[in-house]
Design a protein that fits this description.
single chain; Alpha-D-Glucose-1,6-Bisphosphate, Chain A, domain 3; TATA-Binding Protein; 3 domains; globular; five-stranded mixed beta sheet; alpha/beta; 23 strands
């Protein structure tokens, strides 16, 4: 690139940069001017020649993407536009096209008046939060950019990108192992419809014996059926009832940008994410004995037990996609999972996908001939957990210290790598404070003792409630 002069915009405070992505309130903390600045700054800081851009189904996403594209091209880099797409499609396209980076305009499961960006660098690796992303933030705020001698090229690549994406995700399974199954698939009126429909069509082309029952398929920026966040208890009954009413074998529900998927078994029971992590760890260790599997620290007993039984290597990471991906790359881990339903795959550029997990589980059900409930029943009984509970706390640090003081003398293992985890003979807990709000998150699990989980939850809740806002 040949720099000819500095291009200057008025300095502006930008507060939508978070730990490893961007998220803000429309026309308050994120708007088209910010999107333009981020495009220019991303190219200037990372010195890239091309950037993949995609956007989710929100009403503002197309306009923000247009501003971002203008910024990237004005900085002299080419744009590879894959249009309405999920975050994982941007990840895949970045590697497929050999681009210098990729940016998805999305607010995922956040309220309807939010939007944001998820960003990766070359090879679909996460940008370094303290280095690259911090520099992009600084340059975008300062408004001092380099101007190039030519405007970057523009390429509409959404058809090629989707074809490559479908081929990639289906490479994770043997379609011939699938048996007849009926699936309820809830797209939540988000960005999933086009990718899911393309996958479904290719499965049909390969004579896969799957029957699909679509729910809230079409993208709709008004989200008439609520913000697509299946982790919320109030959002789960619609999928559960569809599974039961359709007599389906499995239910799958996506969040807004479909980088997370959530499961319901044939009885309509919602499956907590930590058990899916254990199930997928088992799947990959059958494929690659002794492989490394990465997990987050919140709920670990079941996952560690599965990995140990199969002779794998359990590696713990801090919660958050940037940290999990970094640890996976370091250990060349075949799979990584978080209880929040983010699932990462070495052969998907170490990125997370919401489509690959349900394909793998359908394959597993086909190979074993077992329903999803049977695949999980023993694990859920052996390692019961409380699920994640949030407490609004005026002073999170003080509240966590009070809990630790009450239990630390009896703890066999104390771990402060991500929040605080204390482990005992037959149970453990993890406490983490939110980075963005006065909230403490509690998870408790045990070895084969649901009563103990409930008892310890009551004890710790009583302590935390003393510090409630």
């Amino acid at each position: 690139m040949n720099t000819i002069l500095a291009d200057v915009l008025p300095p502006r405070e930008i507060t939508c940069f978070k730990a490893y992505d961007l998220r803000g309130i429309l026309n308050e903390t994120i708007d088209e001017d910010i999107a333009y600045r981020v495009g220019r700054a991303f190219v200037d800081v990372l010195k890239v020649n091309s950037v993949v851009v995609g956007y989710d189904a929100r009403a503002s996403s197309h306009e923000l993407a247009a501003a971002l594209i203008s910024g990237i091209r004005d900085a002299g880099a080419a744009v590879i536009d894959i249009k309405l797409a999920g975050t994982e499609e941007v990840y895949n396209a970045t590697s497929h096209f050999g681009a210098g980076g990729g940016i998805e305009i999305t607010a995922s499961h956040n309220p309807i008046n939010y939007n944001g960006m998820k960003i990766v660098a070359e090879g679909s690796r996460p940008v370094d939060p303290d280095g690259e992303l911090a520099k992009v933030h600084k340059v975008a705020e300062a408004g001092r950019f380099e101007v190039q001698t030519t405007i970057g090229a523009y390429r509409d690549a959404h058809i090629e990108a989707r074809c490559a994406y479908v081929k990639k995700v289906l490479s994770f399974i043997d379609v011939g192992s699938l048996r007849p199954l009926k699936l309820v698939v809830n797209c939540g009126n988000g960005a999933a419809a086009a990718a899911y429909t393309a996958i479904k069509q290719e499965l049909a082309n390969q004579s896969a014996p799957l029957v699909f029952v679509d729910q809230f398929l079409e993208p709709d920026a008004s989200f008439p059926n609520g913000i697509p966040n299946p982790l919320l208890v109030e959002n789960q009954p619609v999928t559960r009832e569809k599974v039961l009413g359709s007599q389906a074998d499995i239910g799958v529900a996506f969040d807004g940008d479909f980088d997370r998927c959530f499961f319901f078994d044939e009885t309509g029971q919602f499956i907590p994410g930590e058990y899916i992590v254990g199930l997928l760890a088992d799947v990959f260790l059958d494929k690659e004995a002794a492989a490394a599997i990465v997990h987050d620290p919140r709920v670990v007993l079941n996952t560690r037990d599965v990995i140990a039984a199969k002779g794998g290597q359990a590696v713990q990471s801090r919660t958050g996609h940037a940290f999990v991906k970094q640890v996976m790359r370091k250990h060349k881990a075949v799979y990584g999972g978080e209880m929040s339903a983010h699932h990462y795959f070495r052969d998907f550029s170490y990125c997370d996908s919401g489509m690959i997990p349900w394909l793998l589980i359908c394959e597993l059900m086909g190979r074993t001939g077992k329903p999803l409930s049977a695949l999980l029943a023993e694990r859920m009984q052996k390692f019961p957990s409380s699920g994640e509970h949030n407490f609004k706390i005026a002073d999170p640090a003080k509240a966590i210290s009070a809990v630790v003081d009450a239990y630390k003398e009896d703890a066999l293992i104390k771990d402060r790598s991500d929040g605080v985890s204390l482990e005992f003979n037959d149970w453990r807990f993890n406490l983490r404070s939110s980075n963005t709000e006065p909230v403490v998150r509690l998870n408790i699990e045990s070895r084969n003792d649901t009563h103990l989980v409930n008892e310890k939850f009551k004890e710790i809740s009583t302590i935390l409630d003393q510090f409630a806002c």
